[in-house]
Amino acid sequence: MGCCGKKRTQFFARGVDPPSPEPPHNNPPLRRPASPSAVFFEYIGETGLTAFGPITGRHYRFSAPGARVAVDGRDAPSVMAVPSLRPVRSVL
After folding, report:
1. Mind listing the pLDDT tens digit for each residue in 1-60?
2. Cα angle at 91 between 90 and 92, to 5 degrees?
3. Which runs of consecutive H residues, i.e. helices, occur in the chain?
4. How many CB atoms are located within 10 Å of the residue 62 CB?
5. Are strands 59-62 and 49-52 parallel, antiparallel or unpaired?
6. How far from 66 is each of 1, 2, 47, 62, 84, CA to CA, in Å?
7. pLDDT per residue as tens digits for the range 35-48
8. Which pairs from 55-61 meet CB under 8 Å and 24+ separation?
9. Residues 40, 2: contact at Cβ < 8 Å?
């Protein structure tokens, strides 16, 4: 049997870079950078509520009536559509 070592040496001696391995197919999805602005919401319902932010994938938990939670600005338009939540200016 012949050795492939000489062929490999000749191949790389010609200035050809070795082939790079293929990247794994299980790479995690890229995430968008965090929004620099947050919007605060107050829960005005009767029990508790968890809202889902479709852009960030975050769950925002409002544990009781009057609870105020900071919501990522990218999720704010969707959270604003929830009837029992209203935007507020500050967290007091």
Report:
1. 556 656 666 655 666 555 555 555 554 444 444 455 899 999 999 999 999 999 999 999
2. 100
3. 5-13, 76-80
4. 22
5. antiparallel
6. 80, 79, 10, 8, 10
7. 558 999 999 999 99
8. 56/32
9. no
- What pLDDT score does 30 carry? 40
Q: Given the structure tokens 């001696």, which residue do they identify?
A: 13
Residue 3, both tokens: 């050795």
CB atoms within 10 A of CB 49: 21
Q: How far apart are CA 47 and CA 62, in angstroms?
A: 9
Residue 28's CB is within 10 A of a number of other CB atoms, namely: 5
Domains of the chain: which residue ranges? 35-92
Question: Which residues lie below 8 Å from residue 5, measured CB to CB, with a gap of 6+?
Answer: none
Exposure on the CB side of residue 81, measured as CA atoms within 13 A? 6
Tokens 């029992």 locate to 84
Token digits of residue 18: 């070795």
